[in-house]
Amino acid sequence: MEQTVVLIKPDGVKRGLIGEIIHRFERMGLKVVAMKMVQPDENLLLKHYKSDDPATLKRWGEKTLKTYTQYGKDAKKDLGTDDPMELGKMVNKWLFDYVTSGPVVAMLLEGKHAVENVVTIAGPTMPVNAPAGTIRGDFSTDSAAYANDEKRGVMNLVHISASVEEANFEKTLWFTPQEIHDYKRLEELL
Fold it and tell me: Which domains does the chain have, with CATH numbers?
């Protein structure tokens, strides 16, 4: 069975969506094998987002420039720079400010094709592109364009592991082996 990490971010917690989000995953047949509420610190987020890696920062900056181009805006005029590295550092700060603005519910889910199923249920990273029926599509309309204008992270309710490799890495960051439980759901016993 695959395992994957889901983080309900501060906007999901503050909006009272914890139960709804968990319900959607459990209804699909995914099993919660670890869960806790935490206040993430900068050290944990540096490891999680790999934002001490120059390539990551540059990629975030390039995505920001692409968003600005897409909406006919001028990053240099609005943000004071069009250097991808500098923009990546800004995005990193906004992201950290957002994810540390309140508690996060960290979960480890287990099931057949857990990673792929969680990606489908959550919807695309940008809520504005998420279809109805997904978590992001049903509960958020945010976008990078608005977030950049307001100099903040995109409020997209959840973080999900995008691959099995990412899930295995993130599992070790967020959970100790003692926090992960092995049990059978009722349908597994039948």
Answer: 2-176 (3.30.70.141)
